[in-house]
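[Archive record]
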Amino acid sequence: MEGSFVSSYNLPLIEMMPTNHFLRLGYFMLMAFLQDIAMAANQAPLEASLPDLTELNVEELLNIDLSSVMKTPTALKDVPASIYVLTSNEIRRTGATTIPEALRVVPGLHVARVDGNKWAISARGFNGVFANKLLVLMDGRAVYTPLFSGAWWDQEDVMMDDIERIEVIRGPGASLWGTNAVNGVINIVTKRAKDTQGGLVSAYGGNMRLGGGLRYGTDLGDDAYLKVYARHSNYDEAQLPNSNADAGDNSRLSKIGFRFDKDFDNAEKISVQGDVFSGFSGGAAQPLPNLTPHELPTLSSPYSHLSETDLSFSGHYIMGRWQHAITSNSSSALRFFWSRNERQADLISSGYQIDTLDLDFQHNLQLNEQHYLTWGTGARLNFNNTTNGIYFAWHPDFRLDEIYSLFVQDEITLVPERWKLTLGAKLEHNPVTQFEWQPNARLAWTPSAHQSFWTSVSRAVRTPNWWEQDVHYNAAIQPPKGGGAANPANPATLITIRGGQNLKSEDLLAYELGWRSELTPGLTTDVTLFYYDYHHISTLTPNTLDNANIAAGYQVQSSSFTNYGLTDIYGGEASLDWRITEDWKLRVSYTHTEEKFRLASFAPALTETTTAGSFPTHQAMLWSIYQLTPQLNLDLNWRYVDGLKLSSQPTASYHELDARLAWDVGHNLELSLIGRNLLNKQHVEFGSAFFAQATAIQREIYATVRWEF
């Protein structure tokens, strides 16, 4: 098969391969590239750079090439998945200074601010600060942490003016992106250095925030370009709910980075990028058990004390990418990155350092007019080194996970320009559940150039994370029954959470049906229905009461992570884009999501799920984007979010309004005034979690300035 490197290897070459699995994989990738270079006599250019997304009309937007769903450039109107694209111009017109704020306008996502710096973001259920079923990518680099299989939104941030677009997939992407791409994928695509020439200064300030950034790009000659940037932000502390007391959830983040791009004869491209960051995330005080340095409870009243939930963090990453076009029908890419992430909670004397090494190879091959094949392989090493405290510890305190994967996808044209079938699967090996197989089938029907229907069936899994396996958390002390001093006859109870043994992966079988249509030249609609069937959902099961320390006046009640949960999630999402005039555009969306949580019939007594009620049943949004004059823009965004039924801390439904008035002064200078949460003095959007005490979201007014030179 042309383009397949396996068939061209002979036995002596295989015998020369390294024995280490990681090096062996790298060897295969290198051999593939050598073969590609040998075949490059008739080289063809790579895919052209994406167009400027800032001022596209409806038809142009539907033809944007995206890569998140298919891992190959595919026009938005032809993507057989529920996908939304937030362009660079739309990001600017939200007035957002953080990525989570920009994501609020994406239909189907639930974006909730927990405190001044922590966010809960998910699609189609299972939301929380530690949401673990939504994969986040930065230029194709997975930024999830194996600690809890999610993203730290307080540190995963970039200059907003440096984002080209954000692609949001609602639905499984596991057949291409692997485990943890369960409910969706967010791919944040930054601008190439070639597209960021010259300088840019941006700044913002108001009653709750202050910050800014600087970017400069230069032409190095010979099709080589470089950009460098720096960003700093400060957010003031909010208030406790229904109170004027300060919450202590102030935060700050500083980041510097670069990107270098070079093209070679229009057939090869290399890119190197990276950044270094440091920050602080404050948090409101939470009760912690009174413990001695030897992990013994203090057996007198009060049995807990308030502790600030402050965190400091730092890290960096470096990523290199090499793309190579062999012919017009064949191309390949190799990507490698190394990232380090450190977080420390000094008040509980606990922290960690995680290093990730990731190597990924992909080959695209047009076999014939009917088959377009995409396949690839990858390897990832996750290192964890922790500092344990008396409240929070990891066992073991050092861990190394090796993860290997292989995927293949075939886009099959059944009837040209009418019917297309996409079949794909990813095989992944991890040290916990061993082999995981995640297949996917998508069928698309395009009856006309202006509308398409699609359906899909997917299997996706979320593998157990380090929290579920290794945690040792002393959560609380329950006073003796009836009060009084603790003693052997009336002991206090130490409540703990322990990592589970022999955990299984959470397993999803997903069914989707979608319709996308350009009803008129200025009116488009996108509708998706879905049904999710989950098995082996994470649960907490109490262990047998431990009376080993009863003579000291206390007993231990521990709970361990298990997999007894079953969940059905179903609903629909609908959005409508209407360009009323050349100067006025409306976007309206509605999301309905139903959750049915239950336990397996054989689950032990008192087993409980931990994520029920974390996603709103109803969400709605109306976004008006209006150009008042050639120099003035007015943008209004109203949103409604239904109340949450969290057992620990239910929240009420709320309406909110954001507004932005921007003035193009001229000479590439723009001034704007932004108001957030204008309808309420304060409201609560989510409940508290471990080391995240919910605070009130307040009304904000701030101004921004943006100058390109």
Observations:
- Helices lie at 11-15, 21-38, 58-62, 88-94, 99-103, 174-177, 466-470.
